[in-house]
Design brief:
This protein is mainly alpha-helical and 130 residues long. It has helices spanning 2-7, 21-34, 44-50, 58-69, 88-95, 109-112, 119-128, and strands at 14-18, 74-78.
Amino acid sequence: MYKLQSMLAPGRPAPLYLRSPDSYMESFYNQFVKDFGIRESRTIEGYIAEQPLFFLETMNLLRPWEEMFGTDAVRLRLFGREHLQSGILQDFLETLGCTRFPELRPPDDSVLHKVSLPPDALEYLRLSNP
């Protein structure tokens, strides 16, 4: 955040990308089931009922940004391909007020993120976990 603060002119918007809570929870749980160090075996309902979900407290994520950039400067943006039709880089630059964009080759899908398992495969893996 400090590097971004030093690069932004005063009064410029500070974009903050967050997943919707349900998308974040699903992704977080998916990762816990796949992670060999954790090997989560509870259902998502069991996990939600038994674990503190501090990572879903959006205000705790938002507050440091508001303190650093000011409430009026923070631009909360939903993260996800369905919300960023032109991609996150172009959305970021547009939010900053840019009108020209670099022509970059999009990364291969395998580089973009860890692949999420479909629900049936995730359930199979969960049942296989110790």
